[in-house]
Specification:
Blueprint lengths: L1 E2 L2 E2 L5 E2 L8 H19 L17 H10 L5 E7 L4 E16 L6 E15 L6 E6 L4 H10 L1 H4 L4 H5 L7 H31 L4 E7 L4 H5 L4 E8 L3 H8 L1 H31 L7 H18 L1
Parallel strand pairs: 1-4, 4-9, 7-8
Antiparallel strand pairs: 2-3, 5-6, 7-9
Helix pairs in contact: 1-9, 3-6, 6-9, 6-10, 8-9
The structure holds zinc ion (ZN).
Length: 300
Amino acid sequence: MDAGHGIMENGGHNGAKGSYSFEDEICLDVSKELVKKFHDEMPDIRIVETRPTEKIVPLHKRAQIANENKGDLFICIHVNAAVPIRRSELVGHKTVTYYTGKGKNRKKRTKTVPQYRHYSLPNPAKGTETYIWGSHKNEDKELAMRENAPMLQEDDYKVNYGDIDPNSPEFIALSLLKTKQYFKRSATLAGFVQDEFAKVGRVDRDVRQRGVGIWVLQATAMPSILVETGYITNKAEEDYLNSKEGQQELAGCILRAVRTYIDWLEKQQQGNDNSRRERPGKEDIAAMLREIEQYEQHSR
Ligand SMILES: [Zn+2]
């Protein structure tokens, strides 16, 4: 459980700002609400908070906590912001004086110039969106996972994979397969989260992929999502995000999505038991190695 942002060393808020509240405060409130819900309704799930207090935690530290705990899911809670809409309107004209020429040719002239008033309107953007790591950037995630090699070593690693050297092409292939699997799982969970939000009437801004700016999604060796719970720059949404009811509703949606995800995952794994193993077999690795070879020849 990753509550976005936090209070910095200098005491300032890190994150988006509303008319009276701050993103980091809402993130922590929603995250705490969710932790409580998991504790009450799904006590078998172990929750690790990467930012348990109002104090900010560096991103690499958050990823490290998640990876060291061998998390099955990484959920980031954030609040969105939209820049104000800039407008200008014609308010009249003004006569200005200017001069042309030099010396005795110097002439005084006048011209009329339009006068504008510049102002900004609050951006009406609202709703929730859930981000996953961009699939086109899977190479980056794969790299991150290679750096996090020990994390890939599950308890039954040897049983499943044998003695694969973490620096070998086989290991890279394995990381790639894992990345693909994480991508599918992240996308599925993100879809479930948005479904739940839509059910309670939140504006559904859909699942989105982002290749930059969401470093933690890349650095975590597990399925990961980032939920933008709403817009702090929209007055009605700011009130909603700060209300106990709003926070409980958001947390409830995410909890139900996780429950649906677990059911989905169990069905998937059952299906795999009957037909094909969930874990990559020798043929999968061989296919992936061919892919890597082709990719490398391509980029040479
Ligand atoms: Zn944020």
